[in-house]
Design goal:
The protein is mainly alpha-helical. Helix content is 76%, strand content 0%. The N and C termini lie far apart (36 Å).
Length: 185
């Protein structure tokens, strides 16, 4: 048991490092980052691979840590709202993956439900934070930030994350996926 938690801790550190570095691939251009969502991928994977506690922690720490280190995203309101959003992603993917049947189709169910929940949390937290800063957070801002501008990133996540999770499961590199694929001869 101790070896498993050490492995998950190390993997969580790896996902955190990937989340810190991945935005550099897009040159830290905020408008591109809002479309491709590079920090979301390692957090969603962390939830699937390590479970909900690790996904929750990595998701919460990543945007705040990245803001402190690289000033991107801006701490208020972006990094704080993203911390709650990404924590929700990590929590939900880990929890749903644990609770739902271990079949390939349920990876998509876990992923899409997690993405919806995270965006709702982001909207609620943004509403509060924008209100504290005497700024308006409208329905249009929510839809643009959560869905319309994020379409490329959402598509990338829906394509790439299930492929990675299935590949890790087939290679038996993650224990959390309990597929017992039976081969018929």
């Amino acid at each position: 048991m101790k070896r498993l938690s050490t492995k998950k801790l190390v993997l969580s550190g790896l996902f955190l490092a990937i989340g810190l570095l991945l935005p550099f691939l897009i040159g830290q251009i905020p408008s591109v980052g809002r479309r491709l969502l590079p920090m979301h991928i390692p957090v969603l994977l962390c939830g699937f691979v390590c479970g909900w506690p690790y996904g929750l922690i990595v998701g919460f720490i990543l945007p705040v840590f990245r803001s402190v280190l690289f000033s991107m995203p801006h701490m208020f309101p972006d990094a704080i709202a993203m911390a709650f959003e990404l924590a929700t992603y990590g929590f939900m993917t880990g929890l749903l993956h644990k609770l739902l049947p271990k079949k390939k189709g349920f990876i998509f169910v876990s992923l899409i439900l997690s993405m919806i929940c995270g965006r709702i949390v982001w909207g609620c937290v943004s509403l509060i934070l924008y209100g504290l800063g005497n700024m308006a957070f409208t329905w249009e801002l929510f839809m643009a930030g959560a869905f319309i501008n994020a379409i490329p990133g959402i598509v990338i996540q829906i394509i790439i994350i299930p492929v990675i999770v299935v590949a890790l499961a087939k290679a038996r590199l993650i224990e959390s996926v309990g597929w017992n694929e039976q081969k018929s001869f």
